[in-house]
Input
Amino acid sequence: MTTTTPRGRAARAPRPRTTAPRTTAPRAAALLATAVLALTACGSGGAAGAAGPAAAEVPTTDVVSGVTEDPAAAKLLPADVRARGTLALAASVGTPPGATYLPDGTTVAGQDIDFADAVGKVLGLKLTREVASFEAILPALDSGKYDLGTGNFGVTEERRKTIDFVTYINDGQGFAVRADSPLKKVTALPQLCGLTVATGAGTTFEATLEDNRHRCRDAGKPPYDVKTYADQGALWISLQQGRSDVVMSTINGLRYAVRQQQGLRFLNEFKRLDVGFAFKKGSPLAPAVQAAVNRLKADGTYDRILKKWGTGASAVTTSRISPPEIR
Output
């Protein structure tokens, strides 16, 4: 059994380049994003039109309830965790296929949700899931507030310094634009010079853009402008309305979003990254969760989850603990 409760963003240090509106309610943000996809799927004409309302439906096929406990994996759990029988999980809820709210505004669904629930069943543990903002989860893990977190967290060298990961998919960085954009493919960030790039707050995308901003100046070109958004609905609206020229986000998320919104197109993959459950550095939980993911691969549940969310191209051969960043 999994329980889910909403939670606002934890305090964090000021960030330098936030130019877009923010919300303090993760549920409201996720519902706005879902509403944007639904409205654009039902609309007609212009960049916001789409084929029909069915395109925005979130799959609800049950691929988890049949998962059973694996004693060998459960035996790897620390004794205190086995005794209490629960795991405190922080989940970032945004848009499909990662995690979103169903129309009832309470039930969460997505690839991250299914993987976490399935892992809990393999380990014989009850998950206590709290919804938290993406950028608040990793610091909260370090403080011991949660046992683990989900949010399509890419494994990077910077994050590996303070966080352990147990990988379960391979996703990464990509771009999307309006259909009328002259951009065909982004192979180097200086191609974005002079443009406005929309991306998620506190993500690897924001970090990549900020770290490479100097490359425009070095080439004698005007810099690109980075607009960060805590809610994905506002991000897509900024692209549709021409306030942003290009979106940088997850490969799977971009592909899903452009299928729902006529007048937008997926541009290309830019960089692949392993994605994993996040833990405090040195957490003794990692080996048990790794064993659970590999058990899901062996019994077919893993493939059923990917098929449900249309992310088969993100399959990994085996789960690993904090592998080096893909270069």
